[in-house]
Amino acid sequence: MTFALELSYWQSTILRIVGVLVAVLIPAGTLVYVFLFKMMSHMQSRLGPMEAGPHGSLQLMAEVGKFLQKEDIVPTKADRTLFTLAPYLVVGTVLLVYLAVPFGPDAYFADLDTGVFYLLAVSSVSVIGVLVAGWASANKYSLMGGLRAAGQLIAYELPMVLAVVGVVIQAGSLNLQHIVSVQAHGEIFGWGGIGNPFILTQIVGFGIFLLATQAELTQTPFDMPIAESELVAGYMTEYSGMRFLLFFIGEFASAGAFAAVAATLFLGGWWLPGFGFDNNAMNIVGPLVMVGKMMFVAFLIFWFRFTYPRFREDQLQTLAWKYLIPLSLVNIMATAVLKVVF
Amino acid sequence: MPEIPGVLKGLGVTFRTMLKPAVTVQYPRVKEQPATRARGVIALKEENCTVCMLCARQCPDWCIYIEGHKTKAPPRREGGKPRTVQLLDRFDIDYSLCMYCGICVEVCPFDALFWSPEFEYSEPRIADLLHDKDKLGEWFETVPDYEPYEVGSQAKVKKVPR
User: Fold this and answer.
1) Distance (Å, whole) CA A168 – CA A265
2) Element (H, E) at A313
């Protein structure tokens, strides 16, 4: 650590908690405003919110204020404990994902040797939150939504993990910091100007990862769990007020989290070409670079979301099991063979 | 998979739409000019109405209320019989019911009903959407002239009886 002041354990813990909250809420809010409010509107040839603040930039505050005023309803037949617990499970998972993502040489919350493994393990916990929400609502639509979500998330967990395995083989490490370092020190045919972001060699993996992310987030082409024409809002049907807001934050925060993971694994993470890898300035510049890359990945995710209509349930499962998983297995084989050959 | 080109094309469509300026306007501050013959509101020229009730009978929503009475008017020529004319007592259109089909305008044989493109007459109370014959007469001021027909048309352009 190159900080001048020494922090005791509890001080650094508090700093990290605040840091994670900021790192989750600010990207989530930015994603909602920039993509959900504005980009979606312009893609549909309209302006979107324009009244609250310049170009509707304070619309999000208005929405949050609206949700906070609403009555917090728990259905009589619902399992009260689980019903109240579920949104926190979903949001908590997202916080845990951010924990392992590095934002600079020293700007990380936890430097885990098995970072990738941890990420993928933690990101699938949110399925339990969704399933709990669907079950505890005591509503057939919610239950169907929860089950659909579970089936979908399990189906797309596999291609996602398998797509990441290609990166791990190439980097030779599960540590996210080390994966960033390998990309920064890599060379493209002997030219090391921009390092070697894995999107170049793992383009197939990147595509599969993005598609799987889309499904993991239950974003539109894969949004059967909350298909409003059949299931009202799926597992969120019975939620209102603050708890609905938590699900909403969870959805967009996890979009940000998966964008951050994709940026770290495939786009070179926080490293900016021209800076030394251990340069202290990267602790300031790195997070900004990460935010830029996250915005780019999130743009892709939301672009797909606003373009495509919803899949049918069987088409969704077909895509995962018949195309993405075999493709990612082939990708792993090719990566492994090339790794050994070169 | 033959779907791939279409999938990419879809992405192109949304991306290009995003870069184009939006077609919507910020209504209370910016106003769009509606088309000249837009179906905004129905105007009445009271003098032309003969209380024949054709419009009220054809109206699918039954939103036109007409009352009238017969009276004697002086003869057209010296020494003739006094004429029987129909005078309009009440002509109301309930715009909370009207579905803007325009059948009343089409069916009027005496050129008493016209379309006007004015559309800003929303009211806080639904009962205020019942426009009486004075209000409908005011709308008549806003009726635009008929536009010339397309090139080569032999029909004479209709005139609004001002």
Assistant:
1) 9
2) helix A313-318
Query: What is the reported pLDDT for A156?
Result: 87
In-domain check, residue A205? yes
Interface residue A275 vs chain B (CB under 8 A): no
Architecture of domain B28-140: 2-Layer Sandwich (3.30)
B15 touches A at CB < 8 Å: yes
What distance in Å separates the CA atoms of residue B6 and residue A336, rounded to the nearest whole number? 33
Give the pLDDT confidence of A202-212 residue by residue, as tens digits: 888 888 898 88
Predicted confidence band of residue A190 (pLDDT cuts 50, 70, 90): low
B18 at A interface, C-beta within 8 A: yes
Look at B26 and A39 and tell me if their CB atoms are within 8 Å.
no
Q: Tell how strand B64-73 and strand B83-94 pair up.
A: antiparallel
Domain ranges for chain B: 28-140
Q: How far apart are the first and last CA of chain B?
A: 66
- Angle, CA of A133, A139 and A142, to the nearest 5°: 45
User: Does the model's ipTM exceed the 0.90 cut?
Assistant: no
Is A244 in a helix, a strand, or coil? helix
A188 in a structural domain:
yes
Q: Is residue A329 part of a domain?
A: yes
Q: How far apart are CA B155 and CA B162, in angstroms?
A: 21
